[in-house]
């Protein structure tokens, strides 16, 4: 099950609690999907303080102040960590059983570091060094908007990344403590980067892909992903959706998300886990539509995943692929958008799915 603070943040974000939390800031206004206001941490004549819509974080692009809602409450009101946690938990209607302040400190340092790295990687993808990875995406028929919207990046290597972080004001002491604890040093060939956020939208992990390889060996966790084991990929965008399409793979999920026809979350090659299923159910999803690929092994995995879904009180449905398509990504790339629309209308029950497998 996901951690209490993640569930508190996810619940409050679904209710747009940031509008209440930051309502007393001067100059508060909407800017696209975000909120922007005058920064409370320095003298500010113009709005420079960004409040994100999809994660519990803020950033001032003048003084550099950044953090999460717990940190903001402590700085702004003077309350301690546990007082701030109790306030947010009460607003969410969640009783945090136990939470360690040191764990929060570590997670906040982790997400701040990874956000900086992700921005650097995104810029690097469009540099000459990222040309191979960018062409790989285009060769897979990703449009420019799909590439930009999916937050892909290019990892230029550990040394260049560390040099960039130092240029952004991070100290060697901080990097020795946090970067080396978070980042894998032996994955230099996995250059195409995919950010992995928890269900509250906090950037907690990174996946790398070696574009010269195929299959599972083409992917590598660039960070320790154990903190995300119960957080389905992209669920932060679709918390509480009545219907949720569950697919196998990061690129499959990103592609479906960019198309925008149905809420989607991604799981690993082992299918939907019990912890991931608990998380989906905790946010109020009523039906999981499973599409984990074709072939006997994948079909068995879909049935096992359906058992988990139904045991959590949700409805399980199936999106059947023809055996000529390896997975949903393959189907979408080999057909047209109208065919994907038609496929979504073929969602079926377990009984219908089983009958189809026997004919």
UniProtKB/TrEMBL annotation:
What are the Zinc finger CHC2-type domain coordinates in residue numbering? 35-89
> What does the record give under GO molecular function?
DNA binding; DNA-directed RNA polymerase activity; zinc ion binding
Tell me which GO cellular component terms the UniProt record holds: cytoplasm
Please indicate if the UniProt record lists Nucleotidyltransferase as a keyword.
yes
Q: Which InterPro entries match?
A: DNA_primase_core_N_sf (IPR037068), DNA_primase_Znf_CHC2 (IPR036977), DnaG_primase (IPR050219), Znf_CHC2 (IPR002694)
Its top-level enzyme class, in one word, is transferase
Q: Name one Pfam family in it.
A: Zn_ribbon_DnaG
What does the UniProt keyword field contain?
Metal-binding, Nucleotidyltransferase, Transferase, Zinc, Zinc-finger
What does the entry give for GO biological process?
DNA replication, synthesis of primer
Q: What is its EC number?
A: 2.7.7.-
Q: Which PANTHER family match?
A: DNA PRIMASE
Q: Can you say what this protein is called?
A: DNA primase (Bacterial type)
Organism equals anaerobic digester metagenome
